[in-house]
Amino acid sequence: MAVAGGGHGHFHSHDHQVKGGSEPQLSRYRVVAIVLELGIIVHSVVIGLSLGASNNTCTIKGLVAALCFHQMFEGMGLGGCILQAEFKFMKKVVLVFFFSATTPFGIALGMAISKCTKKTVQVH
């Protein structure tokens, strides 16, 4: 005896959850990553300013050593947060660019301010 209509069916599940967990959790990860990025950017500019404006060789050596270790650990922490937040590729690129560029920008700004200050002092 044959059964009309075949005897098999298909079931499709469309699970729209994100890889890392629920949508609210992913939003939290993204907020944490952005806040951490902003804090590190401000911190990096300030450290760069102090390094760029410094004239004392002993101070510069100490700041460079501290900066290297500090940036390494900040980068590892921020990188983990960025991966956990599951940003799209371009957003990751932008975040990495700002992390990488703010300290050199701060150093250049500190050197420029220091140079302008020296010229002003010499004129008066």
From TrEMBL:
<feature type="transmembrane region" description="Helical">
    <location>
        <begin position="31"/>
        <end position="51"/>
    </location>
</feature>
<feature type="region of interest" description="Disordered">
    <location>
        <begin position="1"/>
        <end position="22"/>
    </location>
</feature>
<dbReference type="GO" id="GO:0005886">
    <property type="term" value="C:plasma membrane"/>
</dbReference>
<feature type="transmembrane region" description="Helical">
    <location>
        <begin position="95"/>
        <end position="113"/>
    </location>
</feature>
<keyword id="KW-0472">Membrane</keyword>
<dbReference type="InterPro" id="IPR003689">
    <property type="entry name" value="ZIP"/>
</dbReference>
<keyword id="KW-0812">Transmembrane</keyword>
<protein>
    <submittedName>
        <fullName>Uncharacterized protein</fullName>
    </submittedName>
</protein>
<dbReference type="Pfam" id="PF02535">
    <property type="entry name" value="Zip"/>
</dbReference>
<dbReference type="GO" id="GO:0005385">
    <property type="term" value="F:zinc ion transmembrane transporter activity"/>
</dbReference>
<keyword id="KW-1133">Transmembrane helix</keyword>
